[in-house]
Amino acid sequence: MINITQRQRRYRINKWIRKITNQLYLTCDDVIYPIFIHLEDDILIKNNNFLKSYSIQNAIEEIKIAYELGISALMLFPIIPSILKDDIGSYSLNNNNFFFKAIKNIKDNFPEIGVIVDVALDPYTSHGHDGIINSDGILLNDQTVVILANYAKLLAEAGADVLAPSDMTDGRVKAIRNVLDENGYNYKLIFSYSAKYASSLYMPFRDHVGSYSVGDKFNYQLDPRDLNGSMRKIKADIDEGADAIIIKPASFYLDIIYRASIEHNIPIIAYQVSGEYAMMKCAAMNNMIDYEKTLLESMISFKRAGACACITYSALDYAKNIKKY
Ligand code: PBG
């Protein structure tokens, strides 16, 4: 034997010592499951983007599986047929919007599951932007906020527990908080997408909801080079009444998750977006990585950075595989 002062491998030499000395524990409570809901009666699987979408009835069956696996919360998105889209996303405020019926149905069937709903107009607008735009493609802030607050109220009425504005306008959190409180929804929460970067990783999602935008979203989403912008936006959203902060994408933005968790005393939720999911799936399909192992490792990295939960299309796969660690 040579004389080694620190035999650190003692901590790694077998499974039980690794288990009791590790500082992270994987649980189903780490994940929030996103579900897309469409009007038709079939399960639609687009094999070019790996995402699925469900009719209301099929969504209920899928949520039953998630619930039985121990998932506590969902993130819901509508897929709106293009004939119902227009420049100002007016179907979002239509009382007959099928998405409201879907939320009610889900909540009636699963009163214990947390229903988070994305609040933005991109599924509803013909141009795919998150709100109203002018002829130069600039998002009109205040007009958009008014619509979003009304939409949030209808979502709350339908049964949503959490409103998650993802449009990156200014003042939306306050406007949503006000409208919720005025209507007696004092206990509905707001999870604000405060650090939402204008990322190339949203492409499968945009393909799925048909929201390929004219131009880009750099006039409202954050420039990936902007470190301080996200901290400023997080602070503003907290001051306006946000109950938790969502950071997206997750993998390329671990530094932002870390900084946010150090600087702000509020739950931080990471969003492993569609492009991150697609990268794992594609590499695995080509036998270049092991999907399950990569998934668990990615989730561990979000937790290490300081996230308390992660919105991930892999939520069910995660729940099924956490025991393997
Ligand atoms: C829209 C929204 C987007 C995503 C979630 N909400 C797309 C966008 O900003 O264009 C993307 C999520 C994903 O890629 O999985 N407000």
Automatic annotation (TrEMBL):
Gene Ontology biological process terms in this record: heme biosynthetic process
UniProt-listed InterPro entries: ALAD, ALAD_AS, Aldolase_TIM
One Gene Ontology term of the molecular function aspect: zinc ion binding
Family annotation (PROSITE patterns): D_ALA_DEHYDRATASE (PS00169)
Active site (UniProt): 196 (schiff-base intermediate with substrate), 248 (schiff-base intermediate with substrate)
Entries under Gene3D superfamilies matching the protein: Aldolase class I
Domain of life of the organism encoding this protein: Bacteria
Pfam (any one): ALAD
Entry keyword set: Heme biosynthesis, Lyase, Porphyrin biosynthesis
SUPFAM superfamilies noted in UniProt: Aldolase
Reactions performed catalytically: 2 5-aminolevulinate = porphobilinogen + 2 H2O + H(+)
E.C. number: 4.2.1.24
Protein family (similarity comment): Belongs to the ALAD family.
Subunit structure, as described in the record: Homooctamer.
Protein name: Delta-aminolevulinic acid dehydratase
Organism of derivation: Lyticum sinuosum
